[in-house]
Amino acid sequence: MCSKAILLASGSIQSQGDANKIVSEYENHETSKLGSSWINNNLNEKKEIAFIEKIEICGKNSKIKNTFLSSESIFVKFTLNIKESNENLKFGFDLVKNGDVVFRSQQVDSPKIIKTLPAGIHKLVCEIPGALLNTGNYYISPLLSVHLIRGFIKDSKPVLKFMVRLDSSKSEFHFLLNEKNHPGPVFPLLNWEVR
Question: What is the pTM of this model?
Answer without folding.
Answer: 0.79
